[in-house]
Write a structure and sequence with these properties.
- This protein has about 425 residues and is of the alpha+beta class.
- It has 13 helices and 9 strands.
- Strands 2-3-7-5-4 form a 5-stranded mixed β-barrel. A two-stranded antiparallel ribbon has the order 8-9.
- Strand 2 (about 85) and strand 3 form a beta hairpin.
- It is globular and about 75 Å long.
- The chain starts with a helix and ends with a helix.
Length: about 425
């Protein structure tokens, strides 16, 4: 967890390809807590709680978690009701958190409303709760669709000891920064899931013989494999771009425009890549046919379930898109993000209309943000000399009315994608 951002992303990408969400989620949650302690905690708290989170000894290393969601306040964090009561030795927390992943963690970051604090997000504080202090109980474990090896529970706090992470009035900002760490690595993980699914599908298709030849010789199978590879490469490209922004911010070399672009992209990239991962994993299952649905035949069923969980992890698509539109207004950043994503004037105009006409933007902004990320992906693929993947992504997502049937060069694009390593 002490590694620089670029190294963290590289290692997490490799981990995600193993398909073990039960390990991946604690890694991300611990990374988020480490960042929160470094940036928000007092020297006393850092010296006490950081070392076990950074330990490289598996038996001694502590794991972190973030418990933010409540039954009546999921994405609406301002509606949360868990209360923080001051005491002689810190704070005591009372109330229920509804969705607590890594429920067996050693340290929890928990949002709570200090007694007497105002309503809404302004009244949310951010606290560190050590498991060893007790004062809570796990009501039940969730029976989830994906990441089933990971303990996710409903937790009732009954006077758990807690320590404030930074000024109480900055609690919501601290929580968002932790969420942004998860959103960044969520996208890296989605790229890893896609890479593994594409590799599994391609290996199977090369060996599976039907109607007298390997199925990877059939045009529709080849198209499917090419789409999977291109989507995986696109997600990796945009997530590497985001990782570079995270690294600059960490190093203190980021410009104001870098920080603003990161604020937009960390949400938009998570939205686009997590949706793409689900579709790519499903394409992999299709390639294997009936075998693709068998749990002990390949990792694809597990990858598919976990990808769906990745979609909801740290913000549903609609909530993220609504937040991006608010941030674009607050930062006056349409021109900035359009330039960074290599977007044409036509997309800039549509984004401006979404901000000028909020009701219209609420309905159509999601499509515009998807296009924004797709344009960044195409530009990054080309910058990385992966022209075949860039071409396929551009034709599938960015050319209105594109008709592959009328394009004699389309088969060549498919073959070029499959020939690229």
């Amino acid at each position: 967890m002490g590694a620089p951002a670029r190294e963290q992303a590289s290692l997490f990408f490799e981990l995600a390809q193993a398909g073990e969400g039960g390990h991946a989620c604690p890694v991300v949650c611990t990374a988020g807590l480490v960042r929160a302690l470094r940036s928000r905690a007092s020297e006393e708290l850092r010296s006490r709680f950081l070392p076990p989170l950074l330990s490289i000894d598996y038996d001694d290393a502590a794991r972190g978690a973030q418990f933010l969601t409540e039954r009546h306040g999921g994405s609406d964090v301002g509606a949360n009701r868990v209360e923080a009561v001051p005491g002689a030795d810190g704070w005591r927390l009372y109330g229920e958190k509804w969705f607590c992943s890594v429920a067996d963690a050693d340290q929890f970051l928990v949002t709570a409303r200090p007694r007497g604090a105002p309503d809404g997000t302004r009244g949310i504080g951010c606290f560190l709760v050590p498991r060893s202090g007790g004062g809570f109980r796990i009501r039940k474990l969730k029976d989830k669709l994906g990441t089933r090896a990971l303990a996710t529970g409903e937790i009732e706090f009954e006077g758990a000891g807690a320590y404030a992470l930074g000024p109480l009035e900055e609690g919501f900002v601290a929580a968002v920064n932790v969420l942004n760490t998860s959103r960044w690595l969520n996208a890296v993980g989605s790229a890893g899931l896609m890479r593994r699914a594409a590799d599994e599908a391609r290996a199977f298709a090369a060996e599976r013989v039907a109607f007298g030849r390997p199925i990877d010789g059939f045009p529709l199978v080849r198209e499917n494999l090419a789409v999977m590879r291109a989507e995986a490469a696109a997600a990796f490209a945009s997530s590497l771009h985001l990782t570079e922004l995270v690294a600059r911010i960490d190093e203190g070399t980021a410009t104001g425009e870098d920080v603003a672009w990161h604020r937009i992209l960390v949400n938009a990239n998570k939205f686009v890549t997590s949706l793409a991962a689900t579709k790519v994993c499903r394409r992999g299952i299709e390639t294997l046919g009936g075998n693709g649905t068998i749990e002990d035949f390949s990792p694809l069923p597990r990858l598919y379930r976990d990808a769906i969980v990745f979609e909801s992890w740290e913000g549903t698509h609609n909530v993220l898109c609504a937040q991006i539109l608010r941030d674009l207004v607050k930062l006056d950043a349409v021109d900035l993000v359009a330039a960074r994503a290599h977007a044409p004037e036509e997309l800039r105009a549509r984004l401006r209309r979404s901000l000028d006409e909020p009701e219209w933007g609420a309905l159509h902004g999601r499509r515009q943000l998807d296009e924004l990320v797709r344009r960044l992906q195409v530009a990054e693929l080309r910058a990385g000399d992966d022209e075949p993947a860039a071409e396929l992504v551009e034709r599938r997502h960015l050319r209105p009315g594109y008709d592959a049937e009328s394009d004699p060069s389309y088969p060549g694009v498919i073959e070029a994608v499959l020939e690229t390593k």
